[in-house]
Design goal:
Helices cover 33% and strands 21% of the residues. By secondary structure, the protein is an alpha/beta fold.
């Protein structure tokens, strides 16, 4: 990867943040995306999406950057891009580091918990592509890509809040975590978006300002660990309530990619000429 004009990294959630929650469009954020590209700032998706989904989406966004997929369970970089990247497997054009148990092991654990405690939930592994498409608004081919998972299971919780607390405790006892995204609960190992963000940032050749943008509870680890955390406003739901870091925290009024653009308009205006940040 070429040396950056601006020594910073942008880590961004996708659904509800860079992508509109309903239409999956990023057009409202395109001016900021183009400016970041011109400054050679890596835009790094950090998402619950699969590598299969990202393979298509990165082409639409015209990004050639590393990614963090499946809520932090996977760090992937285009083959040969990061010199010190130690991968476990290869997947299409990615070198992949897997930080959560494999998908089959997770689903075996979930099936046993469901049987032993009569929990009511439905995971992606139990749904057809048609059912996933109906729930998410994705096309059937996109839903098929969403089901091509390596190390996490999204599920729809169909039981009481009391049973959910018990479910989370049983998962914790087994060294798994449960996080809430925009639409689903996600079961995986002990990885999360924040830990994976820091691990990936350390693989870049120079120290960089870390900007993180997100809208959901599963984004909290990276928002709080970033140098600059940006909470994106949400449809019909109050924005995340986080303790603000002085001068290094921003909450948008705009929703989704409109809020994404709003933040970078603010950032470019107020910080882009700060000599502590820019090194041209």
């Amino acid at each position: 990867m070429s040396q950056f004009v601006v020594p910073m990294l942008v880590f961004t959630d996708l659904d509800g943040t860079l992508l509109d929650h309903n239409t999956y469009s990023f057009s409202a954020a395109k001016p900021a995306i183009d400016k970041l590209k011109a400054l050679r700032v890596p835009i790094i998706p950090v998402t619950s999406k699969t590598l299969s989904e990202l393979d298509t989406l990165l082409a639409k966004l015209d990004l050639n950057s590393p990614v963090i997929a499946e809520n932090g369970g996977i760090i992937a970089a285009p083959k040969g891009q990061l010199a010190d990247f130690k991968s476990d497997i290869s997947y299409k054009n990615f070198d992949v580091l897997q930080l959560s148990p494999v998908y089959s092991v997770i689903n075996h654990t979930l099936a046993k918990l469901k049987k032993d405690h009569n929990f009511k939930f439905t995971g992606f592994s139990e749904m057809t592509s048609e059912e996933v498409a109906e729930i998410t608004g994705l096309s059937e081919s996109q839903a098929y890509q969403a089901k091509e998972r390596l190390c996490s299971e999204p599920l729809i919780w169909q039981d009481s809040s009391e049973k959910l607390s018990l479910f989370e405790k049983k998962l914790d006892d087994l060294n798994y975590s449960l996080t809430r995204g925009g639409r689903f609960h996600h079961v995986m190992g002990r990885a999360d978006k924040g830990k994976s963000m820091l691990k990936l940032a350390n693989l870049f050749p120079t120290e960089n300002l870390k900007i993180a943008l997100g809208d959901s509870p599963n984004d909290i680890p990276m928002l709080t660990l970033a140098d600059y955390g940006v909470v994106i406003n949400r449809y019909n739901v109050p924005p995340l309530d986080l303790i603000k870091k002085p001068d290094l925290f921003y909450q948008t009024t705009g929703i989704g990619p409109i809020g994404w653009q709003e933040f970078f308009d603010y950032f470019f205006k107020n910080h882009i000429n700060n000599s502590k940040i820019v090194n041209i």
